[in-house]
């Protein structure tokens, strides 16, 4: 019997691999919008609550990959038939706070998610500045932005391998830490379990979290599904 490490190969995407970028965007968009994998429904809670459509979300994901893939922090898992069955996409940009709506039309609800991420990022940046006496700069942190796995088998090994490859690279390139905005308990668990990336506490000892129950657009998300978006961090 093959081990899952033999079933899948891993590759960091380059800008020239346009076909692979499209497949990666597709894999991520499917897992965020909602897909059944190994008999379980996988969906990002905010995306589900806001009823975002696949085409819009695919375009958003592809735009993100197109703009960041040359940094070398997007890795895919491929099966024996060369299908992309797992993606972990990140960047080394300092968090950016736009502070206003930027999405329009059928995708305007994406602004709600943008503001949730900006809320936790802003609080993290302020805390970081207090601790370090300076602002976060580009190239300082590995920001793991999106993960999606649609493989029927060996999902945990895939998550582990995807993360290991990017974290090892970040370490070798002298990055200081890995940052994640985890939007659901599953993400919190997998990043903690497989990569020791844990909920971040600010200088006052509080978690940095945006609670969905306090957000009029997101308070329909049942607390047992997800209670908020948390900042996770691991120092390298």
Describe this protein's structure:
This is N-acetyltransferase domain-containing protein. InterPro entries: Acyl_CoA_acyltransferase (IPR016181). By secondary structure, the chain is an alpha+beta fold. It has a single domain (4-235), classed as Gcn5-related N-acetyltransferase (GNAT) (Aminopeptidase). 39% of the residues lie in helices and 22% in strands. The chain is built from seven helices and ten strands. Strands 1, 4, 5, 6, 7, 8, 9 and 10 form an eight-stranded mixed β-sheet that branches. It has a two-stranded antiparallel ribbon with strand order 2-3. Helix 6 links the parallel strand 6 (141-149) and strand 7. Helix 6 crosses helix 7 (185-195). The longest helix has 23 residues, at 110-132. The protein is globular and about 50 Å long. The N and C termini lie far apart (36 Å). The model has no long low-confidence stretch (mean pLDDT 94).
Give the helices and strands, then pairings.
Layout: H1 4-7, E1 9-12, H2 18-33, E2 35-37, E3 40-42, H3 45-50, H4 54-68, E4 74-78, E5 84-91, H5 110-132, E6 141-149, H6 155-172, E7 177-182, H7 185-195, E8 198-199, E9 209-211, E10 228-235
Parallel strand pairs: 6-7
Antiparallel strand pairs: 1-4, 2-3, 4-5, 5-6, 7-10, 8-10, 9-10
Helix pairs in contact: 2-4, 6-7
Q: How far is it from the N-terminal to the C-terminal residue, by CA?
A: 36 Å
H and E string:
HEHEEHHEEHEHEHEEE
Radius of gyration over alpha carbons?
17 Å
| CATH architectural group | 3-Layer(aba) Sandwich
Total helices: the number is 7
Q: Which stretches are low in confidence, meaning pLDDT under 50 for 5 or more residues running?
A: none
| C-alpha geometry | globular
The largest sheet is: 8 strands, mixed
The CATH topology name reads: Aminopeptidase
Average pLDDT reading: 94
- Beta-strand content bin: 15-25%
The tally of beta strands, per DSSP, is 10
Please identify which CATH superfamily we are dealing with.
Gcn5-related N-acetyltransferase (GNAT)
Tell me the count of domains.
Answer: 1
Protein name: N-acetyltransferase domain-containing protein
InterPro entries: Acyl_CoA_acyltransferase (IPR016181)
Organism: Heyndrickxia shackletonii
């Amino acid at each position: 019997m093959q081990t899952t490490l033999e079933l899948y190969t891993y590759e960091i995407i380059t800008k020239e691999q346009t076909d692979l970028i499209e497949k990666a965007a597709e894999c991520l968009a499917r897992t965020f919008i909602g897909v059944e994998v190994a008999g379980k429904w996988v969906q990002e809670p905010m995306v589900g609550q806001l009823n975002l459509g696949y085409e819009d979300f695919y375009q958003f994901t592809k735009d993100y990959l197109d703009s960041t893939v040359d940094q070398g922090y997007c890795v895919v898992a491929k099966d024996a038939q060369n299908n992309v069955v797992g993606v972990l996409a990140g960047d080394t940009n300092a968090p950016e706070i736009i502070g206003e709506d930027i999405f329009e039309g059928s995708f305007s609800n994406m602004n709600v998610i943008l503001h949730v991420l900006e809320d936790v990022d802003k609080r993290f940046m302020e805390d970081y500045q207090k601790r370090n006496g300076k602002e976060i700069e580009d190239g300082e942190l590995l920001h793991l932005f999106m993960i999606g796995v649609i493989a029927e088998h060996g999902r945990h090994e895939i998550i582990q391998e995807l993360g290991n490859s990017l974290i090892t690279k970040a370490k070798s390139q002298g990055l200081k830490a890995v940052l994640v905005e985890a939007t659901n308990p599953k993400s919190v668990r997998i990043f903690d379990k497989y990569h020791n990336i844990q909920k971040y506490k600010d200088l006052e000892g509080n978690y940095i979290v945006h609670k969905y129950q306090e957000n009029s657009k997101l308070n329909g998300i049942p607390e047992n599904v997800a209670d908020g978006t948390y900042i996770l961090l691991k120092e390298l």
